Amino acid sequence: MDRRFFVDRPILEGTAQLTGPEAEHLTKVLRGKTGDEVTLFDGRGAEFTARITRTGRSVVELVVLARHEICRELTTALTLGVALPKGDRQRWLIEKAVELGVTSLVPLVTKRGVAEPSPTALARLSRYVIEASKQCGRNRLLEIAAPRRLDEYCRQVAPEACRLLADVGPDAIPLARLPSFDASRGVWLAVGPEGGFTDTELAESSARGFVPISLGPRRLRAETAALSALCHCVGSW
Known about the structure:
Number of strands: 13
Strand content: 25-35%
Radius of gyration: 20 Å
Number of helices: 6
Helix content: 25-40%
Largest sheet: 8 strands, parallel
Oligomer: single chain
Shape: elongated
Distance between the termini: 36 Å
Structural class: alpha/beta
């Protein structure tokens, strides 16, 4: 059995436990049993080979056999600030952000936003991060940060970081003509809702050094715009 499971506490000793959805998935869906070997990760960078020693109704106990320092992260920090789309499109956005190596995702609270980043919604996003990390092999979890207004998000950025903002305005620079940039000190992206950022929000971002970029002549959904910008950044390094 070659499966990956997330442990919600640091794996420091020779044993570990799976609880909640992870334990249920192993025992009820995959029919894991005593003696089976699995892969564990705790979201802090390493992964572990472990063997099941006991299965219970809601807890699985394991002995840790080996620790593996396997890094599948980008070489620089990539932060995505995005106005969340509605419904299942949030899950799709999180999955792709995890797969592409995003370090941190900040839900943006914007004037034209369509989805409220409530505590319940943020908890759901965190679960999507775990599921996507299990699938793609990341051993360090993407951080779901606290929601921020665009001006607050812009003020967080270090002066030396690269700052890009998806825009449909006439002053936006097409990706094909975007000058090369130094990503070594971090990249921060800002993607608004389908209705776009307001003039006030754009002015605030410009004052903080964000460069408006065009993603093409068609108006994209927020999650499509985010994926397009992320692919360009990752592909440019």
